[in-house]
Fold:
Amino acid sequence: MRDAFVAALSLMVFHKHADRVKMANIAQLANVLQAMVLTKEDKMVLTPTYHVFEMFKVHQGASFLPLDVKAPDIVTPDKCVIQAVYATATVNQQGVTHISLANICLDKSCEVTINLKGTRVKDPSGRILTSQQITDYNDFDHPLTVMPVTYSGMKYGKDILTLNIPARSIVTLELLPAGK
Structure:
């Protein structure tokens, strides 16, 4: 799951600088550190990193959207303040908005408020990648330990999307335009 966060946060930085970064990819695909897949003889396992790339593919070819996200911070025992939730958003040519968020807090869920600034949407949906422990991973004996599932922890009101994002979670939302 740690590798999934490295992938998600890296892709979010690339999205933020899409005016300069025209393409990004992962160099190692199989059987290396932070691999997308693991193979052994006739078997193959999809890793948490693979699942992040698959969830974030909706941002490919779309336009970056500035995002107004409100979420609590993490305060360390020595009083350092760290951002708990990172986010990126894009809109594609069909007007569909995708928002990806990562709650890096290891032990607390975060309530997140997103101001959609007058964007009317219908039927928001999403997927979440999370696990019981940050050290969880997929291997040949346990290939489905970390898998994306349907996310339903959101409420949509007038211009505001409110989410409860569990600890150690990466979420990608799809917001269809209200007129479609």
About this structure: The domain at 2-177 is CATH 2.60.40.1180 (Immunoglobulin-like). The chain has a mean pLDDT of 92.
